[in-house]
Structures
1.
Amino acid sequence: MPPPRPLLAAAAAALLFLLLPVHLALAEAEGFRGFSYLLNCGAAFPITDSRGLRWEPDGPYVSAGTPGEPTIPGPGSLLEPTLATLRTFPNRPRAKFCFELPVDKNRRYLLRPTFFYGAFSSSAPPPPAFDLIVDGTFWTAINTTDDALAGAASSYEGVFPASGRNLSFCLGVNPEYTDAGPFISALQVIQLDDSVYNATNFNTSAMGLIARTRFGSTGDIERYPDDSFDRYWQPFPDSKHAVSSTQNVTSADFWNLPPPNVFNTAFIAEQDAPLVLQWPPMPLQNDSYYVALYFADTLPENSRTFNVYINDYLFIEGLNVTSAGLSVFATQWILSGLTSVMLKPVSPSALPPLINAGEVFGLFPVGRLTYARDVRAMESIKESLRNVPEDWNGDPCMPSEYSWTGVTCDEGSRIRVISLNFSGMGLSGSLSPEIANLTALTNISFAHNSLVGGIPDLSNLSKLERL
């Protein structure tokens, strides 16, 4: 389905040519700037990988789960030490188990969880499938079976806004998938520069990576330290169209700050012929996508002009590519099924078109969050109690199918906590007076627990019907 006219106009307005310079801050070898995390899940001690990155144990950031090791370590664990351990969580239907990470509010973060259950055969039970949740947003369902059969790890990447002082990354137990609890091997949370992907409205949308490609490359994945945010640029070989060059492209001239090396390989069309790519290499569901393409002429002090089409619809007309490099992108471009990218020369005598790299992200809505005062009250209640359920992390209400055990919410104009049913949960400790701030409560039950202290003043709870 082609982009409708209004969306096509909006996409064209979002296409940028030479982007204004921005400052590029290279990450230090020992880590990343700002609130960024490299967590080796299930590990007892820090490790340093072959790139000089230090991975910390995940224990300080998660209150549930059991450290362990893959069932049958694969060869990848010898190359990636973070695959040698994992953390597993209980099989409690509709429970979510969260990592709580301090962040800078109103910044955006790249999240990359990695999963390696262990190498196994087709006759063995498959790895668990489960949901990923960030704050109150459902991200995606995880199924690592195909990768595990090949003895490989599975990684997912998304870009999310930080709406508060903490970011919650959660694994949700979905009983519709399997009858086993979730697991995780490693988690990266990397703060991005303000310019990176800033054309997306992160008040309403988050981004999930579909493909990030370096055309013409036959080498390894391009990542940190070449990419200062450790984004993975996958090689895309094609001996017929691939060329290499040594460019002097300055990444700081691009809002998305791609690594300079992605401009040193390219696909170039044959003379007087278009260049046609099936990319990304997998079919896509009918939806809006963020598409970014990167270009730099392989000849010094040279330029070439061509048109770019996606699924036979004009993406950008008269693109003039020089050796200095440029980027074009659309924030909402409709794609469906297999995607065809065509670069077509503007005239038979023109130099053939080329392309160096590309990114495609799926867009999905950012979930609503529980009313902030209710969240603070629930956190205070949690702190004053003992033996609380392991899933009392992340947003108390959202996503709605993953609310805290014993908590019922109403999704009106504000998401409010309306019922606390903690009967027989084995709780001890005392009841925080902050419960009086849950002014939408209609029902409270703390029967058959071992609480001490007085009952707080509940006179503010005008809607309370049962205590």
2.
Amino acid sequence: MSHTPLHTEFGGIAALRDALRARKLSAREVADSALRAIDGLAGLNAFLHVDRDLTLAQADAADQLLAAGEAAPPLAGIPIAHKDVFVTTGWRTTAASKMLDGYVSPFNATVVEHLAAAGAVSLGKLNCDEFAMGSGNENSAFGPARNPWDPQAVPGGSSGGSAVAVAAGLAVAATGTDTGGSVRQPAALCGVSGIKPTYGTVSRYGIIAYGSSLDQAGPIARHARDLLEILDPISGFDPRDSTSLQFCDEQPNAPGRIRAAFDQAVRRQDALGSQPLKGLRIGVPAEFFNEGLSPEVASAVEAALRAFESLGAVRVGISLPRTELSIPTYYVIAPAEASSNLSRYDGVRYGHRAAQYRDLAEMTSRSRSEGFGPEVLRRIMVGTYVLSHGYYDAYYLQAQRVRRMIVNDFQQAFSSQCDVIMGPVTPNPAKRIGENRDDPTSDWLADIYTLGVSLAGLPAMSIPCGFGRPERPLPIGLQIIGNYFSEGLLLAVADRYQQLTDWHQRKPELA
């Protein structure tokens, strides 16, 4: 039997923080109720590792901080959870792979450090596609996480467990990573909100790498204001990460930057009264509304665009002509980087080692074939091929050229046509688990609306905007894309829409 966590009785992080500081409840009580709910909904398979003692120790530490009153850090006692690609001390970090089964890191990822410093209480590690490679969480070595709106449906991937935990009310927020849409897509399919910030604004240190030029951490939560509460403190320059940015449009990359931009945008909106988004130009790409888009998703996105127009925004038709090319471009570049990043798992230094082998070469071969799942092996093979002698120029180098063209398409739109871009996140609502088992690459096509953003390194988010057909009413997400370093504006625009609608407040019925 499931248990309703105490934190679900509040409207979000701000309300829960006020209750904790007023000592209406303790961080230990909040954490204990969440842990019992996780046990009660274990069938969703959202969590891969829970350690009650570790969580309650963090909660007790948060209660000590809360006793200090206003001096307590902003997230003291707030229950969150981490995708299982963020290394953590105490909790296992497996990247949902047999290759790292049982691994416990000697250090924390920077994102984990920052949230712990802000007082957040970790509930454990969340399920995901193996090494973050997938779009449905079906590639986890420990079984798929299940969509709380329909346990027979995928939750999206690769951050599927993160979206499930938030949608099912098991955590207030969760961390995820987005390489080609892996925060936005599961958020859309589970009816919650998620944001991928500009590449380089959040440290990648301590995140198990998939595609190094694409991976970016981002939070998943129920609504935009809770995303702000998590994203702002984890943003900042990290000298341990060679891809970390020191400055964002000449502003220091540090906590407070995104919140300041959000507050500025909200003040501007408030000054406009009943038309808070007056003057906001929304670019709508023609390529996002092609024959591959299902009618139910098209209808929900169209209704959302009309809602934005009612708030004063102006719709502008734009073109992103290389949208379809983002699929082959991504699936050359990302596997190439994965092939390089995963070469370290050889059975020698760490990771799974085969029990039987005759020599070093066979040990490495068997260890990798036993430790990696089929999707990871598939992408390693693709990546190794495109980087091999004779094919590097024809595939990898050409894909990098197309990537630059995709960046230019977005910049042309932002420079003269629009302030934000909106459209669908996925062509369809969530498919059933195992639906594409006979065609494992078909899921790659479902990333068509998210890949270009990742290739360009732009910030983007997903917010709930409706449900599918009545006989199978699954959540649908709206994608909002911004120019570089515009996370504050995106969150403010999304927040204004969520003040007008209640899609983000709807919750699945759980046994």
3.
Amino acid sequence: MSTLESVIWHVLGYIAMPLIILAGFAAVAAISLWVLSLNQDKKQS
């Protein structure tokens, strides 16, 4: 493996974990807001 390939794989490896954590946080936040909006709609009607 060339030096460039090694650098690319290291950068991808270091970027992957924060992206997975942030994507999971965003997904949980979106689902939570959706569930809360469903409950709010039920209370209003």
4.
Amino acid sequence: MTAEASEPAAGEQRQEPPAPPAGPGRFIRRSRRFPLITRDTARPEGGGRAAPGAAPAPARQWPLLTVMGGVGLGLLIVALDAFRAGTVLIGLSLLAGAFFRWALPEVGMLAVRSRFTDMLTYGLLGAAIVLLSLMAQPDPWVSIPFLDDVVHFTVR
């Protein structure tokens, strides 16, 4: 078989063989190949609007705006020289995103992947940021000896 016979030329569309007529007891087998051109992508589970379509755009995306607002406020607090309080707020905002993803059926653009993956990602990152900010020097609020040993082993 030559390349010309198997692939369409530039600008041409691939000709699909006609489907056999459907009748009682006839099974139509469709191709399992992926289409050459992707027309759209599936929305993630829970990726619908968080408010009715008649609501203004910010109201429809309130879960995402809440998380982004908390992260933005945390970054502003860090910039104003309150490192620990700002990073704790950033971590808590991500944990709130994980909670929204778990509790709400529709979260708008906060849904990026599957519900489980989003909850795992937001939750682990939020918990890690909160834990590390509470352990930051000087004068850590939380001391976990195992993690102190890991840090000392990797840094030295």
